[in-house]
Amino acid sequence: MSQKRIYILNGHPAANSLSRTLAESYARAAEAAGYDLRIHHLSDLHFDMDFERAGYKDIKPLEPDLEEVLAHIDWAEHVVLFTPMWWGSLPAKLKGLIDRAFLPGRAFDTRHPNRFGMPRPMLTGRSGRVVITSDTPTWFLWLAYRNPVAATLKGHILGFVGIKPVKLTQLAGASEATPGKVVRWRKKVEALGARGA
């Protein structure tokens, strides 16, 4: 019996980052457990971040790297996204990837809406995991802001295109994380990778 196919996207735009460290720790543990995996680092992907269109009638062609991201999502049974939270949201390049690649006819279907009149998701049959690093304590994100980045990723983006359920791991105090804390976080994501979770 084949192992679960896992696609990992490190959504930090820098070549070296805590997100990259955690994504690679997850990947090593998943690979050691026998899972079939593919990984992208956002810093290695080349594409125009700007959608630059007023609607979906005139869409500029996707660059090869964006086509590859979509191909890996199509291939995967489980999608794992690592991202920092910046200004309560996603890094601009990661948001640009989503704006450009999650298109009608590729990620959702506007021609055949569901019974509520909403676009039909086209990436169903896949589960997800989002690992968010932030400086803001997680309890404060929930109390003061109702954790908008988590709601956006789980509901408005991944859930909208059919990737569900999406489980969430939040790691706070990222900018000033001590080496010991980073080790604990790596062990945490390694445990997730070993379970393909």
Characterize the structure shown:
The protein has 197 residues and is α/β, with parallel strands linked by helices. The chain has one domain (5-195): Flavodoxin domain (Rossmann fold, 3-Layer(aba) Sandwich), CATH 3.40.50.360. Helices cover 39% and strands 21% of the residues. The chain is built from six helices and seven strands, in the order βαβαβαβββααβα. It has helices spanning 18-32, 64-75, 92-101, 138-145, 148-161, 179-195, and strands at residues 5-10, 36-41, 78-84, 108-109, 120-121, 126-134, 163-172. The protein has a five-stranded parallel β-sheet with strand order 2-1-3-6-7, with helices on both faces. Strands 4-5 form a two-stranded antiparallel ribbon. Helix 1 packs parallel to helix 6 (179-195). The longest helix has 17 residues, at 179-195. It is globular, with a radius of gyration of 17 Å. It starts with a strand and ends with a helix. 33% of the residues are buried.
